[in-house]
């Protein structure tokens, strides 16, 4: 069975169990792979999506309310969603869904819904608030002169902060470079934005597991 076939089977199971609709599905695919379609997924993206589907099918998925659901749209939606998910993967917030992001954006931009954020000044208020949250938790947004190109990618910056946040037992004696090479089979210099999404999502799972364990102790 191919990865795509396995994904489609698990998608149908998720639909049957939780009533997942098309928009929900595409949001999920984008969150895990960086693209809104399963067409032409790389093996590492397929593995990340399959892993998340297995997790969701374990009973920890809550389908959005169809009566009140209003997905984010507009020129700044993708940027806001990317930063919000980064906060989730850093363990800063407890929910990655658009409803929680909308509540945050409404407070920051003083609008009735995040979809009304269509002017740069409103978007900047929310974007900078999210970036500041990430910075307080270790993300260095500075672009240093003479640094390799990959060092300027947001995914690299966030992953570095995630790695520093992990305790030794979660790192399993690896460096970040070794971990990334093992996960996506690429050196830093060849990593794409989509590759970094896979890395950030995987590190996010480790951080949330570590956070959960810390709360038990």
TrEMBL record:
Native organism? Halocynthiibacter styelae
Report the domain of life of the source organism.
Bacteria
Q: Name one Pfam family in it.
A: GemA
Write the protein's name.
Regulatory protein GemA
């Amino acid at each position: 069975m191919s990865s795509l076939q396995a994904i489609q089977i698990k998608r149908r199971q998720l639909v049957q169990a939780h009533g997942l609709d098309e928009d929900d599905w595409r949001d999920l695919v984008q969150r895990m792979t960086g693209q809104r379609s399963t067409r032409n997924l790389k093996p590492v993206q397929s593995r990340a999506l399959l892993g998340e589907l297995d997790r969701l099918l374990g009973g920890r998925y809550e389908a959005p309310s169809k009566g009140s659901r209003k997905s984010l749209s507009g020129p700044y939606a993708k940027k806001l969603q990317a930063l919000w998910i980064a906060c989730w993967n850093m363990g800063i917030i407890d929910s990655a869904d658009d409803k929680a992001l909308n509540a945050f954006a409404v407070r920051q931009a003083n609008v009735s819904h995040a979809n009304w954020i269509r002017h740069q000044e409103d978007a900047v208020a929310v974007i900078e608030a999210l970036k500041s949250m990430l910075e307080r938790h270790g993300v260095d947004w500075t672009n240093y002169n003479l640094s390799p190109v990959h060092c300027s990618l947001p995914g690299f910056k966030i992953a570095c902060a995630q790695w520093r946040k992990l305790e030794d037992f979660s790192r399993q004696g690896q460096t970040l470079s070794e971990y990334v090479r093992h996960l996506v089979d690429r050196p830093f210099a060849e990593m794409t934005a989509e590759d970094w999404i896979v890395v950030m999502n995987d590190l996010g799972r480790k951080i949330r597991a570590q956070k959960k364990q810390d709360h038990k102790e």
